[in-house]
Amino acid sequence: MKLLEDRIREEGTVKPGDVLKVDAFLNHQCDVALFDAMGEEWARLFEGTQIDKILTIEASGIGIACMAARHFGNVPVVFAKKAQSINLDGDQYSTSIYSFTKQKEFPVIVAKKFLNEGEHVLIIDDFLANGNALNGLLKICETAGVVVEGFGIAVEKGFQGGGDALRNRGYRVESLANVRTMDAETGSIEFN
């Protein structure tokens, strides 16, 4: 998606340690018009695919998932929580994921009443690097017995292999910007 790639080139910052900072428009300050265009593109890419719900993980995936849901007939958006709270009651699906950006492990939790066996789910997230978060969501989906129709990713760091691993397992991964290389010293970013 050229619109997203252009924004990354213009406003993204490459940091040491393979970190791409896009907080000006994607995961801190939110550009709602951009999110809407991203949702429209995912709807085009997954046209003809049954989607009953969109699943994401808090917090950065929520905004893009909600905007995308509008383009899939306003399907519900479910987000996995990263911590237990008094608001979570009843039976739950849970697993642990390792966060690349936070450099620590988190529990992820979804109330069982929000994922029903046989539902067709699209998983949406802002970044795909090594695939840890998405593999955690996949474990929850497998336990729930839902059908994962694919992944809608805003930015895939293709050189880190998480997307290729999911594709090799037979999953459909639609990334709107797929970074081939990036260099913290020069600030350069190349896309696939």
Automatic annotation (TrEMBL):
Top EC class for this record: transferase
GO molecular function, one term: xanthine phosphoribosyltransferase activity
EC code: 2.4.2.22
Protein name per the record: Xanthine phosphoribosyltransferase
Similarity field: Belongs to the purine/pyrimidine phosphoribosyltransferase family. Xpt subfamily.
Keyword Cytoplasm: yes
Metabolic or biological pathway, per its Swiss-Prot or TrEMBL entry: Purine metabolism; XMP biosynthesis via salvage pathway; XMP from xanthine: step 1/1
